[in-house]
Amino acid sequence: MFKFYNRLGHEYTVFYDRVTNICGVYNKQMESNMDFHCDLDTFQHAVMEWKSGTKIQDVMPNFSADQREFLMTGISPEEWEDLFV
Questions:
Q1: Helix or strand or coil: residue 28?
Q2: Is residue 58 classed as helix, strand or coil in its secondary structure?
Q3: What are the boundaries of each domain within the chain?
Q4: 39 Cβ partners below 8 Å, 6+ apart?
Q5: How far is CA 21 from CA 11, 17, 56, in A?
Q6: What CA–CA distance (Å, rounded) separates 8 from 71?
Q7: Tens place of pLDDT for every residue, the chain, 85 residues?
Q8: Cα 4 to Cα 62: distance, rounded to the nearest angstrom
């Protein structure tokens, strides 16, 4: 488990399940979560690269646009739908 903050100051907690190889990411401020299918080391490295200034799409090309948006804003695809419906 590790924590990080996005550029908006949202706190994220990452839980890793070695059996399923899933990183579960929880956004404390938005009280939402999303699963990422990758190993913890890969995820941690990508987050560190992104936080150091590299574009998120360059360090996380295997993640969907929805997953990257969730990390940047804390808003899940379902929440985006609710905002604009």
A1: coil
A2: helix
A3: 2-84
A4: 16, 21, 23
A5: 22, 6, 21
A6: 10
A7: 888 888 788 888 898 888 888 888 998 877 888 888 888 888 888 988 998 999 999 999 988 999 888 888 888 888 888 878 7
A8: 20
Give me 76's structure tokens: 């899940």
Strands (E), 1-85: 2-5, 11-17, 22-27, 32-37
**pTM for the complete prediction?**
0.78
Report how far Cα 60 is from the mean position of its chain's Cα atoms.
10
What distance in Å separates the CA atoms of residue 37 and residue 51, rounded to the nearest whole number?
20
The tokens of 64 are what? 């969907």
Q: Count the alpha carbons within 13 Å of 80 in the hemisphere toward its beta carbon.
A: 10
